[in-house]
Amino acid sequence: MIYIIGLGRSGSTLLTAVLNNHSQIKAIPEIPLILFFANDYQNIQGKSETLEIKTKIYLNLIQNIRPKSIIDLNIGQLQNSVYSSYIEYIEKIFEQFNIINSRGSKKIYVDKNPQYTFYTNELKKIDPNAKFILLVRDYRDNVLSRMEKPHNKTVNPAYNAFRNRFYFKELSKVMYMKNSLLIHYENLANEPLVEINRICEFLNVPFENQMFEFDQSQFANLEVKKSDMNEFINKHFSNLGKPITNSAVGKWKVKLAEKDIQLIEGICNKYGKLFKYDPTLKLNSYLWYVLRYFPYYLLAKWHIAKDRLIYYFPSSIKLRRLKAIYNKILN
Predict the structure, then answer these.
(1) Domains in the chain: how many in total?
(2) Of the four, 6, 94, 215, 258, which is 20 to 30 A from 289 by CA?
(3) CA 193 – CA 197 distance, rounded (Å)
(4) CATH number at residue 81
């Protein structure tokens, strides 16, 4: 198993689409299946009918807000799976998924989820041979992107800067770990051929020219069960199928006000420098920003801590919670 980790809006969706054009790779777009059931079932040593029943419920819920033309979870085929461990079960499930340009069994499965950034130890426990692609982006561009996208939790720059800091801090713990590869969004945008070759070498597969070949029409006019979500779905996938460009690199320099740059750099400076993103302004101490923007610091901390707490819930409780959330969305 290969995991793409790092804060969202750092190019991971585009990278997933590129990888799915490889004949030996299937990249799963943000379906956190492995963590959802890991705490209950990671030690299974054979077939588990209870796990299979719960998985079908889970995937049926997920499919409701995933366009089938992009990813068909093919839920009806799960009952034929044969496996002897939890990681084998996950691979069998991924084998059944029909993802655009990648169907059937593959040599490599790539699981892309930003939240995995905080669970590398758990993922290594499930699979000691797991590999991690760490995807990072200039935190100022990342915050700007979130400020421009009103569907995010909040567009507040302080909140999003704290989230960037927390993610960078976690990534700094694994950036030099064996079986990890650090990819900068800026390098991917400026030299995609070089960076994709690096990734192929890391995955031990040959580079294929078709990885950059897209039919943009595949990503248009997408539909999900709830009609008023279709506009969001189409916006989310609208950039897929387009050539990789560097048009979004460094936008913060012209679009962010100086006061916002100072705020964002003040919060992210310490860990940003570890990833070669240097500050441009004179800054106050980090403690000053924590005290000044404490409600947003607390909110960012809480959202991460809440996810950690939910991880330890029994899967039956998590399923009931997920049903309630999706019923609210779909009704």
Answers:
(1) 1
(2) 6
(3) 6
(4) 3.40.50.300
